[in-house]
Amino acid sequence: MIKRISINAITGATAALVLLGLMISAGPSGAVPQIMAEYGDQMAWRGADINAMGGTGVALYRGGLSNIFNPAMLTSGPSDGRLDLSLSMDQEHEDRFQPLFDSFNSWVADAAIASNREHYWQTGFAIAGAPLGEKTPVRVGLSLVDRYPFQYTFSEELRNPSPFPPQDDDPARDQIIELREREVRGTLRTLSLGVGADVDDEIAIGMAVHYAFGIRKETVNLHDFVIEENSYTDDTEYDMDGINFSLGVRGKLSERVEIELAYESQLYTTGEYSNSHYDAATDMVEDSSWAGAIRYPNIYRAGLTFMPQTDPKTIFTMEMEFMAWTELADSEIPGYDNPQRLQDTMDVRIGLEHRFYNGLPLRFGFRHFDSYVSKESAASIFSTGSSFAVGRGE
After folding, report:
1. How confident is the model over 310-320, as pLDDT tens digits?
2. Are 303 and 317 in contact (CB under 8 A)?
3. What pLDDT does 162 receive?
4. Which partner from 87, 254, 293, 376 sits 20 to 30 angstroms from 5, CA to CA?
5. Alpha-carbon distance 28 to 88, whole Å?
């Protein structure tokens, strides 16, 4: 279970100072379920208003963050620009159980063998405006966000369950026999520059270029307190970067209905792996390094926005995102015919925003997506949120 507490803020000079601080000292990525720790989280943080509405953005203006969803939406924003700063805290709970049997080999209960509580932070920023002048049909957006977080931590203790008094050098009851740990750290961030332009009153187009960079670190540690020579520590790090692009289009079917389409090309990351392995039996550390690459899948997005004639204003959006994970290629697992048996995923997102007479918004969201690792797994997310005015911002 993952609980998220989120904050969005926009203020003048203070926001600029905070933005500079975030760029200099970006925190670690958000918590990620173990099943997504290999290639990244499918529920990465974007912003308080976005996540409150089910992660929608293909068919709604999200400032500079529209670079990620649909760069054509940059044209639907105000000409005087918009600045987004985001901060989130993820609290991840993970409990593990194993069956407990009696002497007749009958199941009795599920015994807890490990309980982990971890906290992580995520940050991001985006800015959008009209650098060529308010009267031009061109809008530009710049953003830096976590696209594929890898952060995951788990540890467990193996204790002696024997109820009998210890003999000779035997460990005492409940004494730790082994300590096992796995920690994955890092995130793949993208620095994105997008441009959107109005073709006419009904159609807008956009394009964004993404520079992805990041480091994925994984540590596996086994400490055997009884037979020390069985202990080892293995650290693997992948320092990567790559470039890809997005295309988007926005069309007005009527005064109340809009439809949007977007495409994001494959992200091909290249870099270097480095490994350090310590073996207690030999008391030696072996270091090695080699070149590596990961090719992420194509992404196809579509969205529909409905703005009913209500007073005060209401916005309803429904979006879909298809990711062809079967296209993923990893140099560590040779082959382009999907040797890991990954699954293509469909991500359905629904958002609703209603503003009351005092301007206070109330947002609701629903999201359902498949897991790219297992066809038996999926997630459903229900979200809600609100905001209030702070100076010229919200």
Report:
1. 888 899 999 99
2. yes
3. 75
4. 376
5. 11
